[in-house]
Amino acid sequence: MDASNAMLQRVEEIIDSYGCKRENIIAIMQDIQAEYKYLSRETLEKIAEKLGIGVAKVYSVATFYENFSLEAKGKYIVKVCNGTACHVRKSQPIYDGLREYLQLEGKQKTSADQLFTLETVACLGACSLAPAMTINDEVHAKMTPESAIALLEDIRRKEAVQNA
Amino acid sequence: MPECALTRTQFHLLQTESKDLLAAQKLKVLVCAGTGCVANGSMKVYDTLKAACETRGLNVCVALREEGGENSVHLKKSGCHGFCEIGPLVSIEPLDILYTHVHPEDCEEIIEKTLLGGEVIDRLLYHKDGQAYQRRDDIPFYKLQHRIVLRDSGKSDAEEILEYIANGGYSAFEKALFEMNGEEICKTISDSGLRGRGGGGFPAGRKWESVRRNVSDVKYVVCNGDEGDPGAFMDQGVMEGNPHSVIEGMLIAGVATGATEGYIYVRAEYPLAVKRLRIAIAKAEELGLLGDNIMGSGFSFHMHINRGAGAFVCGEGSALTSSIEGKRGMPRVKPPRTVDKGLWAKPTVLNNVETYANVPQIVLNGAGWYRSVGTENSPGTKTFALTGNVVNTGLVEVPMGTTLRQVIYDIGGGIKDGKKFKAVQIGGPSGGCLTEEHLDLPLDFDSLKKVGAIIGSGGMVVMDEDTCMVEVARFFMNFTQNESCGKCVPCREGTKRMLEILERIIRNEGELEDLDTLESLANTITEASLCGLGQTACKPVLSTLKYFRNEYLAHVVDKHCPHCNGRKRHLEINPKLCRGCGKCKRNCPMEAISGELRQPHTIDVTKCIHCGACWGACPFGAIDAIEEEG
Amino acid sequence: MAKGVMIIDGQRVPFDGEKNVLAVIRKAGIEMPTFCYHSDLSTYGACRMCIVEDERGKIDASCSLEPRNGMVIKTNSARLLKHRRTILELLLASHNCNCTTCEKSGKCHLQALAHQFGVRHVRFTDTREAAKIDSSSPAVVRDPNKCILCGDCVRVCEEMQGMNIIDFVNRGSQMRVAPPFGRMLSETNCISCGQCAAVCPVGAITVKNEIGDAWRAIHDPKLRTVVQIAPAVRVAVGEAFGLPAGDNVLHRLVTALKLMGVDEVYDTTFGADFTTISEAEEFKARLQAGGPFPMFTSCCPAWVKYLEKENPKYLHNISTCKSPMEMFAAILRDKYAAKDAEDGKRTYHIAIMPCTAKKMEAAREEFKHDGRPDVDLVLTTREIVDMINESGIRLEELDMEAPDLPFGMGSGSANIYGVTGGVAEAVVRHCVPDKSRNALREIAELGLRGDEARKEVTVHLGDQELKIAVVHGLVNARKLLKEMDEGKAFFHLVEVMTCHGGCVGGAGQPDGLNAVKIRRGEGLHAIDDASLVKRAERNPVVSALLNEMGEHKAHELLHVSYVKD
What we know:
The complex is a heterotrimer of chains A (about 160), B (about 625) and C (about 575).
Chain A (H helix, E strand, L loop, with lengths): L2 H15 L7 H12 L4 H11 L3 H10 L11 E6 L2 H5 L3 H11 L13 E6 L11 E3 L2 E3 L4 H19 L1
Parallel strand pairs in A: 1-2
Antiparallel strand pairs in A: 1-3, 3-4
Helix pairs in contact in A: 1-2, 1-3, 2-3, 3-4, 6-7
Chain B lengths: L7 H17 L3 E5 L2 H5 L2 H14 L3 E3 L10 E7 L11 E4 L3 E3 L7 H10 L9 E3 L2 E3 L6 H4 L17 H6 L4 H9 L2 H11 L11 H10 L6 E6 L8 H8 L1 H15 L3 E6 L4 H17 L14 E6 L9 H8 L23 E5 H13 L1 H5 L9 E8 L5 E6 L4 H8 L9 E6 L6 E3 L9 H6 L8 E6 L4 H15 L5 H18 L5 H17 L3 H5 L2 H9 L1 H8 L12 E5 L9 H5 L5 E2 L7 E2 L9 H5 L5 E5 L3
Parallel strand pairs in B: 1-3, 2-3, 8-9, 8-11, 9-10, 12-16
Antiparallel strand pairs in B: 1-4, 4-5, 6-7, 12-13, 14-15, 14-16, 17-20, 18-19
Chain C lengths: L2 E6 L2 E6 L4 H7 L23 E4 L4 E3 L10 E3 L3 H16 L15 H8 L23 E3 L9 H9 L6 E3 L6 E3 L16 H5 L5 E3 L3 H9 L3 E7 L1 H4 L15 H11 L3 E4 H22 L5 E2 L4 H10 L13 H20 L2 E8 L3 H6 L5 E2 L2 E2 L3 E4 H10 L21 H4 L6 H10 L5 H8 L9 E8 L2 E9 L1 H12 L7 E5 L16 H17 L9 H19 L7
Parallel strand pairs in C: 1-5, 10-11, 10-13, 12-19, 13-16, 18-19
Antiparallel strand pairs in C: 1-2, 3-4, 3-5, 6-9, 7-8, 14-15, 17-18
Helix pairs in contact in C: 9-11, 9-15
């Protein structure tokens, strides 16, 4: 059984433990998130099916409360500074370059391999290092789109070696 | 009728047994297990004490029923003392000692000297103005407080129901159940003048009576524990420190109104409160104080816990009941009122944690006793979470009518670092700020309302002379705007626009017209919004505009706020020191520096963003920050 | 329900059972502005436009106040007017204000109220991120940039249709109305009923506009434009021209279409008579075979789509008869093939429908032949009204012209297809052997007619006792299915119309509350009452054609299977 099937089975168990009652939807989502850190699309669809309500309703409840995350965050969180100094020193092309490299579309922030989450941050206070970027809070100075991608590629390689 | 798990006689026996057990305990060590102390490492202290006692051959007892004989120590986790700043706190009974800032390495000494030798360790006592305080209640922070709901907080084991019973717990419930009818209970609560502690100040007795009169197959008792104001943690203290008082208050509400189901809605950020409440409910169920046919009276009551999921608006009654029903926490239009159609459209008593925690004492001691504390129209006490630029931050409970000055200066120890007091924000994002002129104002529902503030749930943020009040207004507006549910237009769109304007003003980009727009928007949001969140959202802006308009003008007219921007300053290159190396020029992200090689360089102040890159780059220390006059 | 007298703006206004103060105010002749109050749906109370002030200066929304005897309120104080203007300004600031080119221009409530309240200046700029327009649905277009979050669409989808395709997403100023996970409508179970568009007060959800295609076809000399007009259209088009709802304007509409350049104009009732006969025959066959029961009617494409998407096990129960529109189109294709070959023109078939789901039905693979749909284009009543206006035609002043023959004629029982209960009644008329006037009256009084959510009747056919149910509003059909699932309900025949009131309440119709829909239905019953031919089988053209085509051909042209194996 693959991971996503195992997860859905566990999700089903959690829903069953609440007697498939609609009023327990928030508690159900809390329990699922406690185990899986976020609520996947399949999870929300399973909840809708088991509770006999619309997927739109489940999604509506999930997006109302701040504690629910609908997106898994990556292992590495990359923040590109978008403060004034970094902006004029062309931080946007770095962000765009990384987005393209990570193949992020629309509002997607996390790469498909769950390794990277790309965000922007308003002024890291490292203006003299502009344009700056952080990877898991470690500051990297004077970035270019190429050097930023190189950093990420490096991490990917290391991860691949570790997993091999 | 299902059989009862605990008869009334058995309850009486349990009371006697608990009292005897408690009295029989010779040596008690209470380690504070409130959120503040736990964060400071109090559980490590607990574990170290336990291990160290055991290695010394002391019999460590945890539960009340454990009897360790001669050589025994009762080690307990107590609820929050409220003075979290000096934690982790350890109190030792019956010696009446409160140790502060206790760390695991102090444990050996405590056992050696105090537990075995009966000696006080001066180093661990609370010191102020050269004086050491051994007894907690002598400390000025506590001395001026009057504790009803926080009575047992810090003094008893929050996870031991028998200790609560030994201290008179559940006898008010027993009295309500067997000696009073619903009407009498409602009348007692009405006569006591107890008003809702959640913010509105609505008379609790009247609410109960409305629910009692409503005819319905099902009624509910709901407890609002969704304390979400930034800087408020009173209810957290009660739920963690004395969970049974809340449960008992709700049970009495159930007896009074004929409700048989209770829901406690606890804020997501309070996992410890949830844990304590769960334990408390489980123990009460185990004993038969919750469940079917309690004490053979025919009265049944079941309790449920709901965890919030991060939505401040769920503190609003109808949003809270929607959330319990598993929906988006969006307030609905009223009427119908919650007392008529609340949870699942059934008559519902909805009060907050502190309100319920007051109830057992009122039922036990009578309405007259309660009225003897506080003021005519606001009897009783009120808990406040005292925070901000004040010396003693923490949880305080004072009689209604106590002045702000007493709370901030006598209990709070005045303003930090000897600074001057500027304002205090009461009631969080729904409240207004009060200034120096209000320091002698009695804290009660009506006096505060008169000056445009509210008691709210009890957050009290003290601000010193260095605080920018526009920034305070922006902070609260940002909070409310983030927490607006988005349902009604004035709140959803209006607060967004107000925040945009406030942000503009903070950036010194505002215009005078913006102040008029703020006031005009605030007026519509206040009068036309659907729920309390929107109706009070503009109080911080309106009250700061009223009392600190000059600070807005500093941002708008002078384009310079002394608090936010400091003294006006700009960066300059000292031509005497500059060697013209060009490092500053290369490092400037804004291309604000010009100059020929080996010639003194200059900074274009209109381009400079004060990032300091040049300052860091200059090897000759030639960059100066020049403070301007005025 | 309470009774009493209120004082509104100083005048005494009696009330008797009105559900809120808003209704009493409107009764007093004061037009209360609102965006989110829709009397056929639950009260939401969010737009705050209908606020009133009481004696103590307290402000409340009148949609959520219960009338009380002696209540004193003001509806137009200076404060209220200021708040309304501010609310409108705030809404306009977060709204795509390209009004002149908006589909809804002239019919938009926001535009109308901003004009009415004199909002001439907006102090705030639109800082929202532009959202993508969703035109993936065959029936409606969703432009989130125009949404004012009144939630009418969310409630109609959930409360009337039981669907929950769109809902609120996020909260606060980030709140939107959207399908889950940022999906397009085409990726959801949307059944194209279009009721969201029908209730939308602004241009955030509009019926897909295909007027351009219609004009192109009409003006193309190589095309023969042939139009069919559904029953419900004729009793609603007049509303847009100041005529009362329920007035039959079919003959004026024919004149208008001819003026606009349409070549031939026919009547969908012709197709409906085929449907009645085919469906009745199928029903009788099922009675003989002993099932499967119930037999569901198949005229409503949104209903068929619902079963396909969410309850496919009941597809076996649905009648294999095509809808009247598709029967008509199939016969037309068959009959006009030779004509097209002869004069070298291509027949371009336009159906004028009260319904947005018909646009979806016309595009279904089952109704395509050689890659071309039998119905080339579906126009809604709203669209045909716009085309008439665009042509400068004053419909109310036109002479009358009958539809063309031979396909321009239908029986009375075909006309009532457009109102809830009509299809069932037509089938019963055909099945009952007694063809007397008395029998007709008895059938009319069976209880198939009327506005109740579900009507259940028992018909005696020989020694058989037939149980028939009629439901309208999909939420009621879902309830019925649930009861059937649980074994609590059994019927032989069930008529289902997705929209409340039947096709007269379709989303392609001009704006109208329930009362208007009921009047349109009464208009269709009046046409039936006045018609000489009341039964499908008495339509001479229909019976002649049926004889001519024979059983095999009839099956090929008139039946369809939605069951996927």
